[in-house]
Amino acid sequence: MSMQVDRKVITGGHIITMDAEYGELPQGALLIENGRIAALAENAKAFSHLDAEVIDARGAIVLPGMIDSHRHTWMSLFRGISGDMSLPEFLANTFYGLGALVTAEDLSAATLVGALEAIDSGVTTILDCCDCVNSPDHAVAAIESLQQSGIRGVYSYGFQVYDFQPAGFSSHQERVNFAAELRERYFSDDQGLLRMGTLLSDFGTVPFTQTAAEIRMAQQLDILIASHTGALPNSRLLKGLQELDDHQLLQPGHLHIHCSGLTDPEWRLLAKTGAKVSIAPETEMQMGMGFPPIRACLDHGIAPAISTDIVCVGSGDLFSQMRLGLQTQRCLDNHQHHIRGEVVSELSLSVGDALRWATHGSAAALGMETSIGSLTPGKQADVIMLKHQRAMVPSSFPRASSVLQSHAADVDTVIINGQTRKRHGELVGQDMAAIRQRAAQTLARIQQAALGRAEITGAEAVAWLREAERRASVNLAEAYRR
């Protein structure tokens, strides 16, 4: 008895495969079978004999699904709240301030909203940085919401500690032990859309022995390790790379987020240990983290990955991040010519480079480059279609229009693992009215709980940061105690 094959054929669009062998197909066709890319062709005739659902992509640009290598879905309800905040103000008021109020039910609603917003903007895979694990129930709520959304991703179990009452864990060791329970319960075979990772305690915020325990736990469970690393120039906070390396705790594949405050010796350490780096241009440029370290990555042989980080600050779509990151780095590179008295005759980075950050680069950052990141036969069928409905003429350079002229509203179709999650500009398979109502009610509850909390700004934020730095110096010094 023959098995039924689920087939889709995308035809007539300009296909950008992000695969050097297949290149671009101006009126190409793409065959999907049982959740994988089966074949590519110059046109639809190659697949006309097949019994398949035909998706008309005429006038559209067809791309691999975007990959967001660092996204905090738990903060997705706080849209724009930190738009005028520095990093210390954000940490004191939003991250720790509101994080202490988030219940498991709140987290469930926020994670679902964050994942669906990602899909809506053409993101098919995320690293969900779930710092806010205030209790075991919080972790379960986040995972089950990610499953409900249909997104592909890595659930990154976080170790940050908030002033949540009543406390959901009695000790750091209990948090470490619970990671193994999650691994067994939800991620035992690594075959589903979701994998497990961990987000380390911010370096210096906990004793060095606890950071070491988190890393060894992740190594034992064979899960992705991610950390916010060197995000603040001129600060001891979020540092500690040398201490980690001295204890053989920096391993290949460790994903370091931001890195905009690292020194050249620290960059050499990342390169030596096989690190990956995720850059979030919008938050880095706003919050005083320095310039997005794209050039530092390239100079040290590290392929950049890119991310949205948080909608507390900026856009939740990777097109905006690619555009901002590319044009900022171009400007910085051009300026080097200007200060030498030269005229810029060619650009140092291309729009294709920016697309790689959101596809190949981010796939590699998550350890998934063999299964996603390009429209290559045999890979998972994560595909998006852009239709620039407001454009009055077709694009003369679709790669450039994808990076420089696209927004979430241009995403017409999203397919994840062969399943259509957005069609004709609308999410499918979700009760969006109910989800929006739940999200609004959840936000209102948190806002009510936050009434009366004093906002920390200016000198108070600096004092808060300095105290955190003092603790970091003590905690990192523990690495060398005998």
TrEMBL record:
**Amidohydrolase-related domain residues:** 61-420
Query: What InterPro entries does its record include?
Result: Amidohydro-rel, Metal-dep_hydrolase_composite, Metal_Hydrolase, MTA/SAH_deaminase
Please give the SUPFAM superfamilies that the UniProt record associates with this protein.
Composite domain of metallo-dependent hydrolases, Metallo-dependent hydrolases
Q: Which Gene3D superfamilies match?
A: Metal-dependent hydrolases, Urease, subunit C, domain 1
Q: Which family does it belong to?
A: Belongs to the metallo-dependent hydrolases superfamily. ATZ/TRZ family.
Name of the featured protein: Amidohydrolase family protein
This chain's source organism reads Serratia liquefaciens
